[in-house]
Every structure is written in C-alpha cells, then in structure tokens.
Hints:
Blueprint: E1 9-19, H1 27-35, E2 42-48, E3 54-61, E4 66-74, H2 76-92, H3 99-107, E5 110-119, H4 136-149, E6 152-155, E7 160-161
Amino acid sequence: MSMFEDDQYCWRETYFVLFDSARRPSLKSVQDVLGRLGSRLTLVNGVAGEGGEFESITVLAPDDFAAVDISYLAGDEVREQGSDLAREMEQSGDAEGRKDQLARLRHYDGRFDVLHFEQLVGGDEEDDPDGMLDPTTLLSVLEALARLTDGIAVDPQAGTAL
C-alpha cells in the first residue's frame, strides 16, 4: 500500500538515490540499514522480488509527522535521467568539485524513488498550515540508502546532489 492511499498523509516531495543496478540490495539489507536508524521508525509493507531483491517499503516516523515510500526502478530511463541531472548541475554551476559524482550520475541505471509524506494533524491539510513535518527521517533515509548502494542522493526539483 502506498501512502498516497492514506488520507492521513499528504505527499510533499520526491527525491532519488541513483546507483548502479548491479548493487541493487535485497529487501533484508534495506530493512537492516533502515532499522539501524532508530526505534522511532517503523518499517511496513516491504516487498521483495522472487530472488529477495528490494522492490519497495514504507517507513513511518510518527515523531517527525512523516512517512517515506521507497520503490526501485531500473533501466535506460534512469540512465537518461541521471545524464539530464548531471547536465543540469553543470549548467547551474553546481559542478564545482563534483566531476567524479557527475560522471557516476551519467552511468547509473538503478534508482530508488523516495517519496516524502507529511502526516496531517486533524486529517486535513488546511487544519495544519504551518505543518509539523520534520525532515530528519527523509535525510537519514537518503543517506542510508546512498551508503548502502554506493549511490548518490539527488533532489530532482532543485537539480542538486545531496
């Protein structure tokens, strides 16, 4: 089940972790890495492929008023997107000291889509205009997944690597 189906949560942003698909981890590896982030997180809806490889999982973080859906995608579309992101970063001036990182982005063909959701207080987005969303869970998850896959976490809206 995606958090899109839960009316207590509202999608806020999507980040990516791009990596070489040959480094695609197992569901168990992802659960282990995310489980080490602390007992304040709950992992639910883990899905693995036939060989145990990671497909998707949801991370709930009630203390941060957040949830994160993570899913895996691979192929030429991911490689093209990595090349586009590298080009955007070069054009925006975000390439200084990142030549190796940009070269890696151009060749990655695996990606985690990391969708960040805010838990709505009172169940209505308009009841909570200031929001209580804490980005700690999102940032911790992105860092853990990038380390696990030797990949690069990216904010595609800003066109920057984290």
